[in-house]
Design a protein that fits this description.
Layout lengths: L2 H9 L3 H11 L3 E3 L11 E3 L1 H21 L2 E3 L8 H7 L1 H4 L1 E6 L6 E3 H7 L10 H11 L17 E4 L3 E2 L11 E2 L5 H6 L1 H6 L7 E10 L14 E11 L4 H18 L7 E5 L9 E9 L2 E12 L1 H10 L5 E2 L6 E2 L2 E8 H12 E6 L2 E6 L10 E5 L5 H17 L3 E3 L5 H11 L3 E5 L1 H6 L1 E6 L5 E5 L3 H5 L1
Parallel strand pairs: 3-9, 19-20, 19-21
Antiparallel strand pairs: 1-2, 4-5, 4-6, 7-8, 9-10, 10-16, 11-12, 12-13, 13-16, 14-15, 17-18, 21-22, 22-23
Helix pairs in contact: 3-12, 4-11
The structure holds adenosine-5'-triphosphate.
Length: 463
């Protein structure tokens, strides 16, 4: 895209719109089912999005491993419907819906109330929310059509259902999982019985989750199919509070280590606790549209294992080695949204500045999570001797650092702009001097400074 067009386009867009536009043109994220007009709450990750996502997952798995005594799991998306009855999701996993009778938009009642500064949240009862709605009816306007013509607030269940395995009318519908945590609880005994772990220990997994969100919005923030990185830490009840505080510290540090500034992160305690929680705090990020949840850290007590013990008849108690008493462990849960982390990292690193008199967009991603670590280009693509040498350098380098990219499209300035937008920390150019003394230029994304480096030292320099 030419610089002028980009500048004109960028001047009129909000930061979120700019991120959406950048991630599409540079192959990070595409709208789901775009050729058919899109499908609400769905996004597809492209080449660079997949790499960024994987780097964030890898960083998360590393912090989990570093905690010690951590088992990993990949449980199935479909489970017995009993899992969701036992967990309380069938009866209690709801969001409040209100319909605008004028334009038929379906809206989150709590979000609408919050938009006029009325304190509300999704855990309030229908009665509480309807009362708040009635008292504030005059102030409330539909964000889509501007009218004030609403129905009653009703709580809607978020679990998505499917006909998997349903062949007769009377066969039950299966739920797609609404959180990865339940897969962990139902496998608690299996992991314990491997003999590698005893309480305290954690089980961690990354996986897809499905929720019938009433109004998916704000790009990757509220999707209907998204990914969670969840960890359940099983601990003796007397040690739960200490474990909870330790995990809170570790989880905040994770985002700082991803390159997010401290001032854009904060803690927020839940006022209305969800049915399973004894205490709950959210790590919030300052998204382009305001502060909102990035990760939930919850003390779930013994709620889930007790419920599954009751519904399945399996004994989930473990032995306290000190007192020889049997008890059901408490669970400290850290529940991070992968898509929201990707959005936070993109928002944090998105920047516009001027380099060599030209405006540019740059993703200042931390090199450890950047999808591409270095781009390699021949100065000119119509000079066979340069291309040959560049191919040689690229071929050797990719064996050492596979996350590199060949780029010979357009002039050198265009290539720099393109790589800046992908967040590539370094660009390596093979020029005529390379043919003479086997050195290349390495250009730094953030400063634009170029340095001559001998090909022999290139891998070390880039690392
Ligand atoms: P919210 O209040 O924003 O709906 P939640 O409290 O229901 O979120 P949790 O059930 O605690 O969310 O899920 C854990 C994490 O999963 C959240 O902190 C968030 O990062 C992520 N998450 C939840 N819902 C969505 C969604 N619809 N789209 C993307 N990520 C989500």
């Amino acid at each position: 895209m030419c610089a002028l067009k980009l500048r004109m386009e960028n001047n009129n867009l909000s930061k979120l719109d700019k991120i959406v536009s950048l991630t599409k043109r540079r192959g990070f994220v595409f709208q789901g089912s775009e050729i058919y007009g899109g499908f609400a709450g769905m996004y597809d990750y492209g080449h660079h999005g997949v790499a960024l996502r994987q780097n964030i997952v890898n960083a998360w798995m590393r912090t989990m491993r570093m905690h010690g005594k951590m088992a990993f799991l990949d449980s199935s998306i479909f489970t017995s419907p009993k899992v969701w009855e036992a967990s309380g999701h069938v009866s209690g996993f709801n969001d409040p819906l209100v319909v605008c009778f004028s334009c038929h938009s379906k809206l989150r009642a709590d979000h609408l109330l919050e938009s006029v500064d009325v304190q509300a949240d999704e855990k309030m009862s229908e009665t509480e929310l309807n009362e708040l709605f009635d008292t504030n009816r005059e102030k409330l306007k539909c964000p889509v059509c501007g009218k004030k013509n609403f129905g009653k607030v009703v709580q809607k269940n978020l679990l998505a259902t499917s006909t998997l395995g349903k062949f007769e009318e009377e066969d039950e519908e299966a739920y797609l999982r609404g959180e990865t945590a339940q897969g962990i609880f139902i496998n608690f005994k299996n992991v314990l019985n491997t003999g590698f772990y005893n309480v305290p220990f954690g089980i961690a997994q990354v996986g897809k989750v499905f929720r019938n969100e009433i109004s998916p919005r704000q790009f990757l923030f509220r999707k209907r199919e998204f990914e969670q990185m969840e960890m359940q830490y099983f601990v003796h009840p007397r040690d739960a509070e200490k474990a909870y505080e330790d995990w809170k510290k570790e989880r905040m540090q994770y985002y700082i280590d991803l390159g997010i500034k401290k001032e854009n992160l904060r803690w927020k305690q839940h006022e209305h606790l969800v049915f399973y929680a004894r205490d709950a705090w959210d790590i919030q990020y300052k998204y382009p549209f305001g502060w909102d949840e990035l990760e939930g850290v919850h003390n779930r007590g013994d709620y889930d294992l007790t419920q599954h013990q009751k519904f399945s008849g399996v004994d989930f108690r473990v032995m306290d080695e000190e007192t020889k008493e049997r008890y059901i462990p408490y669970v400290v849960e850290t529940s991070a949204g992968l898509d929201r982390t990707i959005l936070a990292v993109l928002a944090e690193s998105y920047d516009e500045d001027e380099m060599n008199g030209e405006k540019r967009v740059v993703l200042r991603l931390k090199p450890s999570i950047a999808p591409i670590k270095a781009a390699v280009f021949p100065l000119m693509r119509n000079k066979p001797e340069l291309v040959k040498k560049a191919e040689e350098v690229f071929g050797a380098l990719k064996k050492e650092i596979p996350e590199i990219m060949w780029d010979d499209n357009g002039n050198i300035g265009k290539r720099y702009r393109r790589q800046d937008e992908i967040g590539t920390p370094n660009c390596v150019t093979i020029d005529f001097e390379t043919l003479e003394n086997d050195s290349v230029t390495v250009r730094d994304r953030d400063t634009g400074k170029q340095e001559r480096v001998s090909v022999k030292e290139l891998t070390t320099k880039l690392r």
